[in-house]
Amino acid sequence: MDAKDTVLEIMNKQGKPLSAGQIAEISNLDRKQVDKAMKTLKEEKLIVSPKRCYWEPKK
């Protein structure tokens, strides 16, 4: 599983908006990997930001 899938899976399991730092802590991925995965997910419009610096899967 690549970082993008891991990030999306964690967001779905948590059920609340998360910051990149929280995702990195939960997943044990490097923060740079999380940032890169989130950038891709944003471009693909798979995640949205309900408040600044927090992200959740698009419903």
Automatic annotation (TrEMBL):
Domain (Homologous-pairing protein 2 winged helix) ranges: 2-49
InterPro entries: Hop2_WH_dom, WH-like_DNA-bd_sf, WH_DNA-bd_sf
Descriptive protein name: MarR family transcriptional regulator
Native species: Prosthecochloris marina
